[in-house]
Amino acid sequence: MTSSSAGTDAPRALITGVTGQDGSYLAELLLDLGYEVFGLVRRSSSPQTDRIAHLAGRLQLLRGDLLDQSSLSAAVAESRPQEIYNLAAQSFVPTSWQEPVLTAEFTGLGVTRLLEAARQHAPKARFYQASSSEQFGATKQSPQREDTPFWPRSPYGVAKAYAHWITVNYRESYGMYACCGLLFNHESPRRGAEFVTRKISLAAARIKLGLLDRLVLGNLEARRDWGFAGDYVRAMWLMLQQDSPKDFVIATGVTHSVREFCELAFAELDLDWRAFVHTDPKLARPAEIECLVGDASRARQELGWSPTVDFAGLVRQMVRADYEHLRLKQAPPSTPFDQLALRAR
Ligand code: NAP
Ligand code: GDD
Question: 282 C-alpha to center of ligand 2: Å?
Answer without folding.
Answer: 15
